[in-house]
Amino acid sequence: MQIVGDRLRLEGSVDLIGAEGRTFGAEEGARVLAARAPRPDLAPDPGLPDDTRLWAALQQAGGGAWGGCVYDVDASVARLNHPSPRPLP
């Protein structure tokens, strides 16, 4: 497995993915992950404080963790003004 992180360009990659004792490349890994459903017990903790819930909603509206973990104000405002049918967490 090779994990590469470039802290200056804010880019990274993982070159090897595996599941159930099998290893495969990034393309097949993306297909496997896309086909998986989330765990049925995966849900926000009902006891989360309001400020944490607001941060999570803004993070999701701005692109989520995979969007770079950096607030995108324009994307957040657009999402909040025109929400999708899927509710925010």
Could you explain the architecture of this structure?
The model has no long low-confidence stretch (mean pLDDT 79). A hairpin with a 4-residue loop joins strand 1 and strand 2. The chain contains three helices and four strands, in the order E-E-E-E-H-H-H. With 89 residues, the chain is an alpha+beta fold.
Helix proportion: 25-40%
Beta-strand fraction estimate = 15-25%
Low-confidence blocks of residues: none
Structural class: alpha+beta
Mean pLDDT rating? 79
* Largest sheet strand order: 1-2
Please count the helical segments. Answer: 3
The major β-sheet equals: 2 strands, antiparallel
Radius of gyration: 17 Å
End-to-end separation: 33 Å
* Outline: extended
> What is the tally of beta strands?
4
Spell out the key features of this protein:
4 strands; two-stranded antiparallel ribbon; alpha+beta; 2 domains; 16% strand; 89 residues
Brief characterization of the structure:
It is built from 3 helices and 4 strands. It has 89 residues and is of the alpha+beta class.
